[in-house]
Structures are given as structure tokens and as C-alpha cells.
Write a structure and sequence with these properties.
about 15% strand, globular, about 40% helix, 8 strands, 8-stranded parallel β-sheet, alpha/beta
Length: about 280
């Protein structure tokens, strides 16, 4: 089984996770830029983070047989902080890099006017850079937030097939299905979506434009949730082709719109020493 986790924050995870992910079938990931819990106080702090997503983290992932790409953006949680506004001027040159396969994550957190401005500006940047966009939907008041998100996306003029609207649930999937955007589901250990609810949604809405991710980060989360959804799909009678469509081909198709994905479809087995940490510590 081949799995592509289209939204995971590996910077926050340990090497044991890479080993377990590889063993579960994960061969590729996209890591969107997000907030780190502790607010950043200056633009340089973002640039060092972006450089880590472009350099160190792909290198670390490769030690464990996993191909790592990233999405870059000023995240929703920090979009309203005036100390971070200068990130927008730096982003266009970062969006030119080969390992950047989307703009993201962008969108609303508290649905303020400033967040909306930053969201719109980054949708424009995505159009200019010819990149797809990963859009986060707010965790509070999700239905209203998702509706407004879709309105902003529609007004941007971006083709819906270049937009992935993430963190959906039973209440929000329908409106995104109707919009023509891709639908993302973050599967968490004890809140929001779980594998069985995900399978029920796939039964109702089908597998087209559907993406499943673990969104694992520094909070309670599980990087193997993608594999658990694959197993739940199989147990519910989905074919191996259906499972591979959702867990591999859909993310390849979505991020492939960047023209940069260029994944090795049949990556060599991880180096024999992948079970150990081959990265030298100073
Ligand atoms: Zn995220």
C-alpha cells in the first residue's frame, strides 16, 4: 500500500514517527507552513522556518524513505499579527522554489477583516505563482467559516480545482463538494473526524476530489491516521483501487497541478539503516 499524507507537520514529530509511517506505507508527505504555538515576533523567524521546510526536513524524511514537499504561506493564526505582516513581501521569492507544491495553509482563524485581507492576498500570490492552494477552515463556527471561505475563493477567480479546502466534516463537506474545490479531511485521535466517520462520508460522496490527512503536529494527533482510514475503507468493502485513489492518486493529482511534484512513483526501499537514525548530531 502506498500512502501520501497531504497535510502533516513533520517538524513537530520525532524520527520514530517517520519509521512508523514508512512501515505503514507512507511514501510521500506535504508539510504546510503553520504556527508553532509560540507566536513568532519577527519576519526572520518565518524565513528560518521556511528554509527548514525546504532543506532540513526533506533531508530528514529521506533518511526514512519518505519524499517530503511543502506548502508555504503566512498561516491563519498569525495572519493578523502586525509583526508578521512583512512575511507577505518575502513569500513570492519562496514560492519559486522547486520543493514548494502549493500555497498554504491560508484561510481564517478568528474570521477578522485582517485575516481576510491576508487570505485574499495569498490567493492572488497563488494565481501569480501558478500554484494550487491549501485552505484551512476555522475550528470554531466551522459552517459559517467554510461558507465564507468558499465565497472568498470564488471571488478570487482561482479555478476551484486548484483549491483544497481542509478540515471538513459532515456539516461542511456538501457545500465544498458543490463548489468544485477538493475536499480535505483531517483525522484526529479524539476530536473531529475519525476513520469510521470518514468512511461514511466516502460512501455518501464518492472518492473523487477527496483527500485524507493526519494533520499531525505538536498537539494530540497521530501520523498513522491515513493508514487507519485505508484499513477502514478496505473493511467497509472499498476496493484496493478506491483506497489507492484516495490515499495516493488524489494527492498526487492535486499537488501535481504545481508542475513540480515529480515524485518517484516507485521509490527505492528505504535505506537498510532507516530503522536507525543516520543523521549525525553535532
Ligand atoms: Zn495544519
Amino acid at each position: 500500500m502506498r500512502i501520501f499524507d497531504p497535510h502533516i507537520h513533520m517538524t513537530s514529530r520525532i524520527t520514530d514517527d517517520y519509521e512508523r509511517m514508512y512501515a505503514a506505507g507512507v511514501r510521500a508527505v506535504v508539510e504546510p507552513a503553520f504556527w508553532q504555538g509560540q507566536p513568532r515576533t519577527n519576519v526572520g523567524s518565518f524565513l528560518d522556518y521556511f528554509d527548514a521546510l525546504l532543506g532540513w526536513e526533506p533531508y530528514r524524511a529521506a533518511q526514512y524513505g519518505i519524499q517530503h514537499r511543502c506548502a508555504l504561506a503566512l498561516n491563519p493564526k498569525e495572519a493578523g499579527d502586525p509583526r508578521c505582516a512583512g512575511v507577505l513581501a518575502e513569500l513570492p521569492r519562496y514560492l519559486l522554489k522547486d520543493a514548494v507544491v502549493a500555497v498554504g495553509e491560508v484561510g481564517y482563524d478568528s474570521m477578522t477583516a485582517r485575516e481576510e485581507e491576508v487570505f485574499e492576498a495569498q490567493l492572488t500570490m497563488a494565481a501569480e505563482a501558478d500554484l494550487p492552494v491549501l485552505v484551512h477552515t476555522p475550528h470554531r463556527d466551522k459552517t459559517a467559516g467554510t461558507r465564507r471561505t468558499l465565497d472568498v475563493v470564488a471571488a478570487s477567480g482561482l479555478p476551484p480545482e486548484r483549491v483544497l479546502v481542509d478540515h471538513l466534516n459532515e456539516l461542511t463537506v456538501g457545500m465544498v463538494a458543490d463548489s468544485g474545490c477538493w475536499m480535505g479531511f483531517s483525522i484526529y485521535p479524539d476530536t473531529k473526524m475519525d476513520p469510521d466517520r470518514m468512511v461514511a462520508i466516502l460512501k455518501e460522496y464518492g472518492t473523487a476530489r477527496m483527500l485524507v490527512n493526519s494533520a499531525a503536529d505538536w498537539g494530540r494527533s497521530d501520523p498513522l491516521k491515513t493508514r487507519q482510514v485505508a484499513d477502514a475503507m478496505a473493511a467497509a468493502g472499498f476496493t484496493a483501487d478506491d483506497v489507492e485513489r484516495v490515499l495516493w492518486h488524489n494527492p498526487v493529482a492535486f499537488y501535481g497541478q504545481s508542475g513540480r511534484l515529480a515524485l518517484d512513483d516507485h521509490p527505492a526501499e528505504a535505506p537498510a539503516e532507516y530503522a536507525g537514525n543516520t543523521i549525525k548530531r553535532g
